[in-house]
Every structure is written in C-alpha cells, then in structure tokens.
Amino acid sequence: MTGVPAPPPPPLSGPRESMDYDVVIVGGGPAGMAAAIRIKQIDAGLSVAVLEKGSEPGAHTLSGAVMDPRAIDELLPDWRALGAPLNQPVTRDEFLFLGKQRAMRTPGFLVPQCFRNEGNYVVRLGLLVKWLAAHAESLGVEIFAGFAATEILYDPQGRVVGVATGNVGVDRNGEPTAPFQPGVELRGKYTIFAEGARGQLGRQLIARFGLDAGRDAASYAIGLKELWEVGPSRAEPGLVVHTAGWPMDRETFGGGFLYHLDGHQLALGFVVGLDYRNPWLSPFEEFQRWKTHPAIRRHLDGGTRIGYGARAINNGLPQSLPRTVFPGGALVGCEAGYLNAARIKGSHAAIKTGMLAAEAACAALHAGRSGDELVDYPRAFEGSWLHTELHRSRNFKLWFKKGSLAGTLMTGVEQWLMPKLGIAAPLWTLHNTRPDHASLRPASQCEPIAYPKPDGVRSFDRPSSVYLSNTHHAEDQPVHLTLRDAAVPVDVNLRVYAGPESRYCPAGVYEFLQNDKGEDRLQINAQNCIHCKTCDIKDPTQNIVWIAPEGGDGPTYASM
After folding, report:
1. 538 in the Ramachandran plot: left (φ > 0), alpha (ψ -120 to 50) or beta?
2. Span 15-26, pLDDT tens digits
3. The overall pTM is greater than 0.90
C-alpha cells in the first residue's frame, strides 16, 4: 500500500536449506551426465543429483564436434533406438595445409590415423547433452539447471561432503535485494566434479589437495566456433575438414576445423594454443581472417552465420593430469584434463571417465564406504582403452612448442610412421614445465599484428558475435570477473604487455579506457562474458579470477 515502507532485505548469512544424496555431480556436460546415468544403471536405488549452472542442460556446452561413439556405445548400447541425436556420420576427411592464398591437400595415405574419422559422427554436442539429461531424468536422476555451485563443503576432517549453490538476488555491491534467496547445500557421500576445463571448484580442489604435485604444467587452448546455414549447393553432409598453417606463424600452435552437419548447416572454428608468445595476437581476429582464405570461403559463400561461441580447451597431456581423487570426491572429463588433442576430441573421454568414476562410487557405496578416496577410479582408467589412446598421443601438443615444422614432422613420425612400423606408442615422453600464462613476451619485443576490418559477410566483430551467443547476465549482481589487485592491469599488463586481455578475450569483456584526467583504467564488461575462462588461464600476472555468476546466466549454446 502507498506509504508503507518495503520490508528490509534478508541478511546474507544464516542457515541454508540442505539436501542429502548418495552422489552429487557438479556440472551437467557429457562427463557429468554419463556419471549420473551409469550410477542409476548399476543401482537404481541410489540417489543422484546433478547441478548445472547453465539455464538448461547443454546451454554451456560448446564443442566442434566430431564424436567418437566408442564411449556412448558402452554407456548406452541402444542409443540409436533411443533416438540419440548422432544424426550425421562422417563421410569424408580432408586435411589442408594453408598458405596465404593456396591450400595443399594431404593425400589420404599420408593422413595420420588421429585425423581419420571413419565411423565417427558430426554432432551438436549441446543437443546431445540435452538428450542425455532427459535420459538421466527418466532413470530418476534429479537435475537442477540454472544453479551454480560456488562453494565446496568440507567436514571437520577436511573431506569433501558436497557443494553449495550461490546466493541469488545480491546486488553489485554485495547487498541482498528483495528477491534474495540463499544458496542451497547439496551434500553427498561422494561428489563428482565435472565442470569442464578450468573449473572454478576443480581449481580450488587441485590447490587444496595438491593434486598437481609432481605433474607437468597444464596446457590449454582457446577454441572459437561459429554455426552457419548454407545453401543446398554448398552443403556436403559429413565432410570433415581440418587445416594447419596460415594464419598462424611458425611459433604459434593453432588450426581450423570445418564440419558439415545435416540440415544444410556447418560448424567451423579455430583453435589457438594459449602458450602463444606475441601479446599482440588476437585469437578472435585470427579466426575471422582464417575464414577469408579461398579454401574456407568457398564453403561459406551465400551462407548466413547463426551462432557463435568460445571455450577454453584442455590439451589433454597425460603428463599433466592431476591426481583425480581426493577424500570424498573425484574429477572427471575436461575438469581433470581428459582430451585427445591429436584427435581433437574430448567428448568420448568425458563420457568414459564419468562412467569409470560412477562405477568406483557405486562399488564404494555398496561396500558401506563414504568420504574416502575412490582409488578404483584412477586404477580403472590406467587399464582402459582411453589411457592407451591418450598415452599414444601424449607428445602431440608438446612437439608444436618447438615450432610448427618440428610439430608437423614429429606428428608424422609418431602418429603415421611408427604405427606402420608396428610401434603402438612413442618410446619417449616430452614434458611441459611452463604454464601458458608465463609464455607472453613483452610487447616491445614483438611485432604488432594489423588485422583487417571485418566485412560483415564472412568476418565479423565481437559485439555482433556475442549477440549470437545468446549471452545474458543480470546487470545488478556482483562482477564475476575479479581482480586480485586492481592496479596490476594498468601497471603491469598494459605497460609491459600492451593490455593483452583486450585481445585474448573473444567477447570484448576487457577494455582499456582513459578517465577525465587522461589516466588509463581497465573496464570490465562482465555482461559480455561467454564463460570461456581464457582470462583465468592466459592473464600473465594471474590477477584475473573467474567465478560463476548467478545460476542460469551466461551463453546459451544448446543448438550449437
């Protein structure tokens, strides 16, 4: 009524609702959904909850993707009859080496096995995850979409006992608003973390339990992707194209992919290793100019871009895999780093490791255990076909750290010649000692890169791209991109590295502006963030920390 003051907002602290489960799974991607399904297959009586920060399952799932069906064959042998959206088998492979204007196609007999995709499927991974979620729910799995897990719960002995979701309805200053709702605790006898590459909670667990002790430095890339509709004359359903060479220089790891889907659509994208050295490099602009190459342009002529996204990618080095178990839980999928960079595939690894962790959790629960280490999980991985596969490709990314020539030559030796000689895996192992953020050189030591302006037909700018990612964030909430020291972006990043965050971010989140006094400052446009987490990895001072915003916020990739 008029004149009646509004009630004060509730306090931020206080008791939270708590729900108990046998297993709590954080992250509703391929690994998390596979784990949930496998648990219910083994024992329908076990209670399982999946927390997914996206607005719906698949909303934050982004991949190329060409999928090896081996793992889903094991998880759901009747997936074809059940209607899984693996609709387009690969019909043909091309591997191109690009010059600035020319393309050299690798003869089929010289293409290494890792780049052959016979028997695989071109998929929209977001749609597959959405389908897996529906199947999991039919088995009795409880899925909570739109809820971000932001806190790990520990018991007095330091064991993981679950997670808590973030508070909702907090303003930019950290104060509760009228629709405030406190987070909810989901407690489990075991908690499986499947947040994807550079997961917020996984990062904390690795640090707390020293899971990366004695392991190589992790290696990442950024993958950028667009979805296009093309005319019937341009459509070649099942064609898979990979490229190396231009526009990357000889020091920088990167390459492109172009996959023809069904329905006159094609997915194309570009991957750049985040160990690149030149701070003037922009992965987004490299992707845009790659599309202007005649060998790529011919696929796009007359087409329309309908989707965009970007995501950090693990490079999947077994030498870098952290210990994947700790008291009360486990890391699966890209959260741990299970990806085959040589094959450019990770969804099969995610599904397989989700299954292995689920089987270990079920065995432990049936034995009356809880809160201990699921040691059967890493043991099962070591005896699996996935371990054999990753072991075979363990040097792939590391050879390219020695330059594109060495990388190309040694990929041929390890992935083509040695198998023909009957040698299943390399007899040597390379190691990575430098994290990606430490690779940047000072800007004064590097040549600036002049990128062409987008033409709005094949190449585009960041704002129009972010628009196609369907990204949304509630404006009045705390900024989820935090700085450990607000002075570092200007005092170090701008002065030494020419402000690389304004270029490595694929969404225009970071801008260097000047105030009325002519002083430089960093502006963070958090509403543009598409949750790729590149800043959390590549920031040379490790001053930027990515944390989850309110649940449901971010991009919507379900159709990508």
Report:
1. alpha
2. 799 999 999 999
3. yes
